[in-house]
Records
---
Amino acid sequence: MIVGITGASGSGKSTAARIFVKSGFYLIDCDAVSRELNSSPEYVSRIADVFGSEFITDGAVDRRKLGDHVFGSADMLGLLNAVSHPMIIKKIEDEIAAHDGDDILIDAPLLFESGLDSLCDVTVGVTAPDEDRIDRVIFRDGVDYDTAKKRVTSQQPNDYYVSHCDIVIENDSTEDELDEKTYDAIGKIRTLESGVGKRTMSAVCWMLIVVAFILSVVFAVFTLSGLHSDDGRHNGDATVYITSQTTQAEQTTVTSSTVEATEATPRAANFIDIETVHGYAVKYGTEYGVDTNLIMAIIKRESSFNANAVSRSDARGLMQIKPSTYLGEIYLDLCAEDDPELLFDAEFNVKCGTYYLHLLHDRYDIVGIEQLAAAYNGGVTEIKKGLDDENYSPDGVTLYTDRVPNQSVKNYIRWVRGSYNEYVEIYGDDPINDFE
């Protein structure tokens, strides 16, 4: 079980995190990971390249100086996040892998903003009244009232955590009561984790493995027979799959090319500056009628603006597109070359990803920011099922985003919507958007 805990400064998040540790959770402190990163040669070099060598002191990043530089500028902060978040996430993923089988708590002030929520089974938010938070910041940091108030009011309000987190701990009384509420939250999480007994769970896992094997064989038989689904699909690991509309002979060629194109050679990170990416988003958003703020939000979520990003399933580039997606349909429609290496070209990748969003709307009748994000991440079939179920959709067109059955897709929707709103603040509403 991986739990993410978050909360604004002075909320009592660290106190709640200590209760999780007492209850047997292994703690991954994102602030500590970030501090370690400051002396990493790769990170130091990248910060010097992007912001300048004046932000490096004694071989390490000067956190305070850099923080003062980016504070108040959404663009500068976004650029810093684009550099730091992928490296932080990689370190955290490595630590999770090293503690496989343990209950893990990720303590992250920017749990959703960084995308770390996508690694979590459950998200927990700690909230507190603003005046209580101000008092705690004054006591903890030794600052005056005005400074403490400025810090508190510049961060996310309590409603943000209430709307984003699966469980909310309201810290509005004594520390003893906070401890009690935290233990109650842990109890709820344990109930979720142990809803099936260990013996039963083991049996279920083995049964699922057998079923998965059988299905993989059946799928292979159908594939070799030239049969295919008529649906698009995103595999949940920042990749998309669009079914080919080619003939059986063409499919054979595409399948062969796809096999040859997998296992991309690792590449050095290539972070593209935000304004350049926004230029691509405007260009192809205009061409295909896609909201540029949605394009930007998906790019931030999928790759953090690293044009050389490669996922575990070989999804590539800024918008994380698999070779099978590209070779299956996109390159034919766009009259491009039969070469998945093109996906590492930043502009071309944005063109392909934007075209795919156009297909989701035009071919599969997916409308609205949340629905498009869900389809991009979870696949058309699952989203259509949700839209057809009154438990998940009020009108067959929009989703109740707090009721999405797949937790990963639910987190993805919330993260994309949050980033989308950030870009609306920077660039304004997009007049070319015809998806709402």
---
Amino acid sequence: MTKRNKVKICIVMTAAVCIVALILLQTLYKYRKNDESGIPDAVSSSYDGRECRLIVTANSSEIEDREQFAREVFRMCRENSFRTIKLSTDIQGWPERLDITVYFHRRDIGEKESAMRIRFVPPDDGETYDIKSNPGAYEILIE
């Protein structure tokens, strides 16, 4: 192999390593940015009759005002505005109850205790409620 070919191979290899490094750094930056954004996100949902169970990440290291956080999550449920998942309302309709387990970060799920649990419960007056049509009727229970 000539010296010129060796130089070309070295340049190509260096460029390839730089491109891979940039892609990795960009991916890590996006992950870290989303993980500390402070914007709640639902990462899992399941329905049990008319109750919806959610796992939500706070994407923050702390929750300063738990009631305000709970109201924000409730608003995001009603608007179906989570980034990762969308609630399926076309078959079962909007849920009557919400049971939400909150973790600080996605990496905490299954590894650490939950940060809090939020339940949205309608009045027990025999009427039928759903979170979309009757948001003001719900009681917020924070544990």
---
Amino acid sequence: MDLQLKDKVVLVSGGAKGIGRAICTRLAQEGAIPVIIGRKQADNKKVEQEIIDNGGKAICLEAELTDPDACQRVVKEAIDQLGKVDCLVNNAGFNDGVGLIDGDYKGFMESLHRNLVHYYLLAHYAIAEIIKNKGSIVNITSKTAETGQGNNSGYAAANGGRNAMTREWAVELLPHHVRVNGIVVAECSTPQYDRWIETLPNPKEMLDKITSRIPLENRMTTPEEIADTALFLLSERSSHTTGQLVYVDGGYVHLDRALIRE
């Protein structure tokens, strides 16, 4: 299926690792031009070079997205280098464990800046271009907004905000023919997830326990499965889909817990 993404310029925050990297790679395979945005330029450049080596196009921009000025700068730099921005994938974030009992004001606010505020800022600074080009926005979000996780107030609140902004932007942008959707991730195999598992007692046993509770095939979601859904939502193949939160999670959030196999 031709997703009609050829030569579309797509900003991807957190584009150097995990889900973001998979999205950038898939975009390039479809002939789009991903703009890989991340805080470590060496990581960004590695993905950029892999894409170029495989015959695709990409650029990479270094940015600490908790800095509002950096959010504005990377959008401007993308336009300066490529002449336009068509779409945005908000993806960067970190499950940072800022809880209610052991957390504090400073940590909570830092978590919101790490995980939510830059979603708004990148969209705010890019929206004139996206409207001009009748593009689309995809927000990557997490099950924690609905299920909770424990000791996770900042990240859960940020993801609740991501979900709410997805719906709000979809409404605001209706007159401009710009679609906005979200992808809700549950248990996805990424470098960040792998590092978290290793901090737990008996990491292999814990991973086996988690995967046993994923109804479809009792396995983790792959970054590529998230990426494939993101590309569909970015593309005109989903031309009448907006304001939706799509769960790419093997049924983890919504299917009956009686399906769990101990």
---
Amino acid sequence: MAAKSNLTNMLLVLTGTCLICSALLAGIYSVTAEPIAQTNKNILMESISAVVPDGVQISDAKPLSIGGKDSEYYECSKDGSVVAYAIKSEATGFGGALTLMVGITIDGIVYNTSVLSHSETPGLGANCTTDEQFKAQWKGFDPSSKILAVKKDGGDVDAITASTITSRAYTLAVKNAVEAYKNIKGE
């Protein structure tokens, strides 16, 4: 014989279901939290290593404000002297936040850039991670002798084909990192 459907029975079943689901989620979280944190740390360290010279020691994260947003940077030392900085910078692209790691040498030259995360359109703006010509122009970019803006806006940066908004966001993130570098250096 089936249980009579009433408010009390429905509340008991709903409460029991919620408790079981909550317990499952808590258990899964406790099992996956550490591996996820370790994976994120590995991705961050790989990104920093990609944007600074080889063989440097990377400091712990140091807080920084870029464009009114909280961020972080890392000092990269070799033989006890800082040789570069890795600066985490974010701008808003077509699909949302575009987060970069920007490596800047002690003399203010952009050593390299790396995309940490993005929400750009696959096949268009997402090409900021795969377009070799676009990525190559950031290696050794000297903001003291070049204009940090896309060519369409009078700058020296070649935009990704059909992705001007993403290219502008990428350029802005690099520009913000350069400004942050100047603040770190006290310029």
